[in-house]
Design goal:
260 residues; alpha/beta; Rossmann fold; Alpha-Beta Plaits; 2 domains; four-stranded antiparallel β-sheet
């Protein structure tokens, strides 16, 4: 009956017959909402709820507990287990449908809020011109990687890149051209940073920094050479520079985790 009522409202239902099967299905494919009978064979609804919501990235999934018990002890037990709401048997179908709809709407709003917060966090840590990490993110990442290098006795390399004669470039070609130059250079740097743990940042006006965890001196030199060549290959005209094109200077600091 429950399945039929929900399917008539357009919901897609996965049904299981016991608590352990519920937990297994939840692990395999987390749903948008769980309707959980408190009294089930093998694993009761209370313990099943606790185990489900202890799994990674599942605490946001609403659980509507269905129980034939309405005493305060059972109600408290349902909420202590992590249930979002509960409904008693015999089920009043309009009430059930209303609660299902509200729980799904609330869950959707929370997901949208979380996504918006994540986007805002990303914006706070991103340089708006180059879309690389900003100085704030760089400072945080360097401190984290420095501590990790000491703990793990692993190498850590830091590259700094400075555009040569950039002030004359800005003065003679204008700030819009200077911004386009910085964006092109940032694209080269971002393209040459491949590993998930590496971080490329705009350190200052025309300065860039690249954090390379678990990277030796030879590895850092290889990355620096690639970046320098990539910038030269952009062919950005700079009549007021020494070589007629925009160039960059790169230098680095290798660090071993066991160094004092």
């Amino acid at each position: 009956m429950l399945r039929s009522v929900l399917e008539q409202e357009g919901y897609r239902i996965t049904e299981v017959t016991n608590g352990q099967a519920c937990l297994n299905e939840f692990r395999r494919s987390p749903p948008d909402l769980v309707l959980l009978d408190a009294m089930m064979p093998e694993l009761n609804g209370f313990d099943c709820c606790v185990q489900m919501l202890s799994l990674p990235d599942t605490a946001h999934i609403p659980v509507l507990m269905i129980t034939g018990l309405e005493d305060p002890k059972s109600v408290n037990r349902a909420f202590d287990a992590g249930a979002t709401d509960f409904i008693t048997k015999p089920i009043h179908w309009p009430v059930l449908l209303r609660r299902v709809r509200l729980l799904l709407e609330k869950s959707q709003l929370q997901a949208e809020l979380q996504a918006a917060n994540q986007q805002l966090k990303q914006l706070v840590m991103t340089d708006p011109l180059t879309q690389l990490a900003n100085r704030r993110r760089f400072d945080q990442a360097l401190a984290e990687e420095w501590r990790r290098a000491f703990r793990g006795n692993s190498p850590l390399s830091l590259l700094m890149c400075d555009l040569d004669s950039f002030k004359p470039y800005n003065d003679h070609y204008g700030h819009p051209a200077g911004d386009r130059c910085l964006q092109s250079v940032a694209q080269v740097i971002g393209r040459d940073i491949h590993r998930a743990g590496d971080i490329a940042a705009r350190y200052g006006g025309e300065e860039f920094a690249i954090i390379l965890p678990s990277t030796s001196t030879a590895g850092a030199l290889h990355v620096a050479t690639r970046i320098r060549e990539g910038i030269l290959n952009l062919g950005i005209t700079h009549d007021y520079a020494k070589y007629g094109n925009q160039s960059a200077s790169a230098w680095g600091w290798p660090h071993c985790g066991h160094a004092k």
